[in-house]
């Protein structure tokens, strides 16, 4: 095995292997899910493919492979340790009702062991398969298929759902038992029951083949899917780390350019202390994720809601840790430049959106600096009242956090300088209560019949296309989609435009859309190459792979857009269209909220 394999080589090898097995190489989908209001980010390679796993025909065929940009921010506070990342790339191959366990397992084994690809030592590999429960049987088939490859029995572990089941990506949807692949390292077994299920570190997971043959229902039951699919996922960073024998992802070549830049700007060394190490890692991870969120063609800017809020938290946390190692002001764009350079060949959108990325990072750093200044003043006021010393109450610390966005760590630090303490227990209590309230709020948002939701969101999605076209007619061709978010009740559309849209212009846009609805134009979908779509004047997000097949939705002679769907059958189904609000979203980007009539 090549211990010096690079991220570029690993990506290329994976795609090349599956191309040779007749898979179409498709572009990474947007990191912001286009038609799934239940999650903020694309969390796995299969996520954008859900409609196809459920039976819709994919324009590129039944065998697909790609590298997908993914974000998981569930454990953002763990970033800084050896393994947590908020952004990662996932290598994957899919069968959409085509091949199943036999081929998937044989090919996985071939890719892992063949000298032409990873060339891993067969004795150093272990596998896990699903042990079976009331929802699905024990996966003897996968067990036997690994055995047929020559794997010894004692290298195959039967594990429960907790370990060997994947999905669905959201609340409902495709899922199934999986079989996972591990590299065994030099650590001794931690005990007689040592297995890939324990976290002693002997077994390092590198790949996961999911056999998606179930569809989880809202009531928690599993129904068989119409077609049997394969969904595999190999995390690029983690696999690179294991293959190159590094103890953690940050020490792979992938992170080197970022860490070098941080060292140059701060004058500190990554290995100085565990605190510097942690700060370097957090900065690298958070700026990388922020760069990919801002650099997506559907990129959002920092705000107090949804994806924008996550982005804001990431940037501010990076800046906060930057202060600990004396990073200069406005350092995040400097790190972003390194990241853009490093990744732009694989993700050309980063170059296309470079200006936006750098501007937004700078703006957010400046906003945060103002917040800190204001928060510090408030803190001083608070301290001035505490003439007898003592503890800053949890309620007051929370007030600083909640009202002024002042991070609790800063409160603790400043308090220490004044020989004061902070009632952390009280703070945690107030914080938890607040979290519970907002969690209840977001659950509320997604409640309601899922079937109704999907019908309503489909029609709103169609309205988004009509709005996009009408805006281009009224305001000109500089209008391009920057983001879209659909809930059951409304659509929200962000687009590039340099000034406020005047009321008479909004009226015109609304009238045009209503005319098109009245005309009840038919909606059709065709598959073609990106080049053909461009030739036909289709707008929308273009993939970057030459010859890639895409779907083009045509609405009468009014609109033609590249899009994965789904859509209404004709424009009349929308009944009516009303713009609720037009406002600024970020520099050069406007936002419209609108609703449609009917059901
Ligand atoms: N969906 C599975 C995962 O994320 C396999 O791709 O691990």
Low-confidence stretches: 439-452
CATH domain class of the largest domain? Alpha Beta
CATH superfamily membership of the largest domain: Bira Bifunctional Protein, Domain 2
Overall form: globular
Largest sheet: 9 strands, mixed
Instruction: Give the beta-strand count.
Output: 19
- Indicate the CATH topology of the largest domain: BirA Bifunctional Protein, domain 2
Write the layout of secondary structure elements.
Elements: H1 7-20, E1 24-25, H2 50-53, E2 63-71, E3 87-96, H3 101-113, E4 125-130, H4 140-148, E5 156-159, H5 161-164, E6 165-166, E7 173-184, E8 203-216, E9 222-235, H6 236-243, H7 256-266, H8 274-294, H9 306-324, H10 332-343, H11 349-352, H12 354-384, E10 391-392, H13 394-404, H14 408-417, E11 421-422, H15 424-446, H16 450-475, E12 481-486, E13 491-496, H17 503-518, E14 523-529, H18 530-535, E15 539-540, E16 549-555, E17 559-562, E18 577-586, E19 589-596
Serine binds next to strand 8 and strand 9.
Textual characterization of the structure:
The chain is built from 18 helices and 19 strands. It is of the alpha+beta class and 599 residues long. It folds into four domains: 241 residues, Bira Bifunctional Protein, Domain 2 (BirA Bifunctional Protein, domain 2, 2-Layer Sandwich), CATH 3.30.930; 127 residues, no CATH class; 61 residues, no CATH class; 142 residues, 2-Layer Sandwich (Threonyl-tRNA Synthetase, Chain A, domain 2), CATH 3.30.980. A hairpin with a 3-residue loop joins strand 16 and strand 17. The chain is globular, with a radius of gyration of 26 Å. 43% of the residues are buried. The site of serine has 10 residues, from strand 8 and strand 9.
């Amino acid at each position: 095995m090549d211990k010096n394999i690079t991220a570029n080589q690993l990506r290329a090898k994976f795609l090349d292997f599956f191309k040779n097995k007749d898979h179409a190489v498709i572009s990474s989908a947007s990191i912001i899910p286009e038609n799934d209001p239940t999650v903020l980010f694309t969390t796995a390679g299969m996520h954008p493919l859900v409609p196809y796993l459920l039976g819709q025909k994919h324009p590129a065929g039944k065998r697909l492979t790609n590298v997908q940009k993914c974000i998981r921010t569930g454990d953002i506070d763990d970033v800084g340790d050896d393994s947590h990342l908020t952004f990662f790339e996932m290598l994957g191959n899919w069968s959409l009702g085509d091949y199943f366990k036999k081929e998937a397992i044989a090919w996985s084994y071939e890719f892992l062991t063949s000298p032409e690809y990873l060339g891993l030592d067969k004795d150093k590999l272990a596998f896990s398969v699903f042990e079976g429960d009331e929802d699905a049987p024990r996966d003897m088939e996968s067990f036997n298929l690994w055995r047929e490859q020559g794997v010894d029995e004692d290298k195959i572990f039967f594990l429960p759902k907790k370990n060997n089941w994947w999905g669905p990506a959201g609340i409902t949807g495709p899922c199934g038992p999986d079989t996972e692949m591990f590299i065994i390292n030099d650590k001794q077994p931690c005990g007689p029951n040592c297995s890939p299920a324990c976290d002693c570190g002997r077994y390092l997971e590198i790949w996961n083949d999911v056999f998606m043959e179930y569809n989880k229902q809202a009531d928690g039951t599993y129904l068989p899917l119409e077609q049997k699919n394969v969904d595999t996922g190999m995390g690029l960073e983690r696999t690179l780390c294991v293959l190159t024998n590094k103890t953690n992802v940050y020490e792979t070549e992938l992170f080197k350019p970022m860490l070098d830049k941080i060292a140059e700007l701060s004058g500190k060394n990554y290995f100085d202390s565990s605190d510097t190490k942690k700060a370097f890692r957090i900065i690298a991870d958070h700026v990388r994720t922020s760069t990919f969120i801002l650099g997506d063609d559907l990129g959002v800017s920092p705000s107090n809601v949804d994806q924008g809020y996550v982005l804001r938290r990431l940037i501010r946390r990076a800046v906060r840790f930057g202060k600990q190692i004396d990073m200069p002001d406005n350092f995040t764009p400097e790190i972003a430049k390194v990241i853009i350079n490093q990744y732009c060949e694989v993700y050309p959108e980063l170059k296309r959106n470079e200006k936006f990325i750098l501007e937004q990072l700078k703006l957010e750093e400046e906003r945060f600096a103002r917040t800190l200044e204001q928060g510090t003043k408030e803190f001083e006021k608070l301290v001035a009242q505490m003439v007898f010393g003592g503890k800053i109450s949890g309620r007051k610390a929370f007030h600083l956090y909640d009202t002024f966005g002042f991070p609790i760590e800063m409160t603790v630090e400043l308090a220490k300088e004044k020989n004061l303490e902070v009632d952390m227990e009280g703070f945690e209590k107030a914080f938890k209560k607040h979290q519970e309230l907002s969690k209840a709020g977001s659950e509320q948002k997604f409640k309601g019949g899922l079937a109704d939701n999907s019908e309503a969101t489909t029609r709103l999605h169609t309205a988004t296309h009509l709005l996009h076209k009408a805006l281009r007619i009224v305001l000109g061709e500089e209008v391009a989609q920057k983001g879209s978010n659909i809930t059951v009740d409304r659509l929200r559309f962000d687009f590039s435009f340099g000034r406020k849209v005047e009321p008479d212009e909004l009226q015109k846009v609304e009238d045009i859309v209503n005319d098109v609805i009245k005309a009840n134009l038919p909606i059709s979908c065709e598959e073609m190459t990106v080049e053909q779509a461009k030739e036909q004047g289709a707008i929308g997000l273009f993939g970057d792979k030459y010859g890639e097949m895409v779907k083009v939705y045509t609405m009468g002679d009014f609109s033609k857009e590249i899009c994965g769907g789904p859509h209404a059958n004709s424009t009349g189904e929308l009944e009516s269209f009303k713009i609720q609000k037009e406002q600024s979203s970020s520099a050069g980007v406007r936002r419209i909220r609108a609703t449609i009539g009917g059901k």
